[in-house]
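Kindly inspect this chain:
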Amino acid sequence: MKKLNPILVKQRNLIKAIQTGVTTLLLSVIFTQASYAQDGYITGLDTPNLNIYNNYTVWLNNGNVPSNLFLYEWYIASGDGNFQSTGLDFASGYGKITSSAKWNSEVQGDYVYVDFYDDVNYNEFYYADLEINTESTIPSNPPPPTTQSSNCGNTVIARATPPSGVTWYWQSSASGTSTSNSSSTITKTSGTVQYLRARNSGGTWSTSSSSRSYTITQPSTWYQDSDGDGLGDPNSTTSACSQPSGYVNDNSDQCPTQSGTAGNNGCPVASACELSDENYVYTITPRKETTNVSSLENNEKIESIAYYDGLGRPMQS
């Protein structure tokens, strides 16, 4: 696309001046004596993405902003764009050193212009321009992530390295647009699918996302079996994905320091004596050194029972 004819631009500016209230006499002087020349340049993104506002700033050729000149109007040569609605004159970016513009469709060789003139003599018009070629490239979908490790209670998902100018973001859905996490890995403690989506430096997202399905191995509760009877202490637990040494998945031991049976809720049952429903004192005397009498065999201990009546008087054993 070619630049606009400077003469046509000057006439356009003069018409605009009429609309903004400059006197007819002054217009006659400008029309007959005004000059029009490029005396500045514009900085800003010259390969913008579509439908995204970017800032553009005008400078004089000497590197200064035109503070003593009157900025007349910003405009886009093709007309296929918009300036952001800021300030009083939002429609054209009138009177701004910096203005934000976006393009609505793909253009190549378009120009963003700004006109300004000498606010003392009113007879010297200037312009600055910047060639625009919109960037319409949509980033490719990322390759599917991989499972880096499966651990007890979490799974770690990893991604590859994105190309230059593109960032890959972890998403909770295929159409997600979150920019909160672009780390190389993500640790999951719940869920079943993790998504990854690409976004280029101009803010354009990939059309879809890649994904990785995963499972979480949840830990179980284990109960300490300090007396080795296969029954666990309900008051002493640990959490693990595999059975720890000294722990069982049962929690029915009511005598956790004495080896017993499941039928007796983990409590010992006398093997040499039959117990009655009377009041009694059951005594085990070890015949060898031990720290756990419940582990002794019958020939390694002496068992005795003393019965008492309701008044605490000894009865026949």
